[in-house]
DNA sequence: CCATTTCGCTAGTTTAGCTAGCAATTGTCA
DNA sequence: TGACAATTGCTAGCTAAACTAGCGAAATGG
């Protein structure tokens, strides 16, 4: 519906092009993740879990099995199996939660983090290459925009 | 590894923040798609197929079952089943290819497109709301950047 | 302090991916 | 042109990974 608007002003047109670029970009990210899952011999969900753990540890937040389930929007039962897989393959460890005896804390192993960055490295390099061509002000603008967009789409 | 660089210059720092924002944004998109799959009572792959078909038809390109398989990085056998599902639920139609008698052309039904935009509409509105706060030049910059990034990640 | 909720798990079922291989058609090149 | 290889989409059968239902242990709150 909204897509079939004939844009009246240059601004509308620019917005429409941007929305289209966002979709294409998000799709490219999906496909990159699809490629990585092949390279690392993992399925998409397991890989998404690693990405989540890496993001969370960068923010200094701890992650429970429940958090994983919520993040991936799968059931806690499926999450148990997922963590069994990742645990068996040495990617994560289940540690006891310091204060809640029911709960667990999921932590990445060093090997897993290293493997991830080894496979992700090339893409990261490419992305950095693109970003390097922009000025600091432009980078700040891009960061701000993506942040706002993420906030609107998924107000965690 | 590259993540653990201590950024030396303001530029490096800005780049790093941007890369982090990209990951967070891509993750937010994933989770939005996860939400939509619940709303539309479809699985992630089927929904990704609809998104692909919508993007392709906007570009005026036709889509074969093979294209779907390549795009989603799944086997053609899985694609057959996927199209069976989408066809049974009235989302797509398999039309004969005009010149190649082996091939098919996959087209979205009008109902499917309408349903998609009905569920996607709110998010689209929100995203437009964010984009509207930027000037035309800024929008152009954002569009260009996302395009370049997509190109690097997934040089289709 | 008892009722309710939360957390992670097990068991069993269903879904959706995979490999292998097929017939029909198309492309290639001796 | 005729033979041979490649491509397209499909079926059959198998496996992986999601789901629902429900459980015991721990935490929370009237």
Overall pLDDT score of chain A: 91
The largest sheet of chain A has its strands arranged as 1-2
Portion of residues in helices of chain A?
A: 55-70%
Q: Mind telling me the C-alpha Rg of chain A? A: 19 Å
Q: How many beta strands in the DSSP annotation of chain A?
A: 2
* Secondary-structure content class of chain A: mainly alpha
Largest sheet of chain A: 2 strands, antiparallel
Overall geometry of chain A: globular
Helical segment count of chain A: 6
Q: Indicate the proportion of strand residues of chain A.
A: 5-15%
What oligomeric state do the depicted chains represent? homodimer
Could you state the order of secondary-structure elements of chain A as H and E? HHHHEEHH
User: End-to-end span of chain A in angstroms?
Assistant: 28 Å
Question: If interface size is counted as residues with C-beta under 8 Å from the partner's C-beta, which chains form the largest one?
Answer: A-B, 67 and 68 residues
Unreliable stretches covering 5 or more consecutive residues of chain A:
none
Could you describe the 3D structure shown?
2 copies of one chain form a homodimer. Chain A is mostly helical and 156 residues long. Chain A is built from 6 helices and 2 strands; from the N terminus they run ααααββαα. Chain A has helices at 10-39, 44-58, 65-72, 76-88, 110-131, 136-153; strands at 92-96, 104-108. Chain A has a two-stranded antiparallel ribbon. In chain A, α3 crosses α4. The relative contact order of chain A is 0.08. The mean pLDDT of chain A is 91. The interface between A and B is large, with 67 and 68 residues. Chain A binds a DNA duplex (30 and 30 nucleotides) through α4.
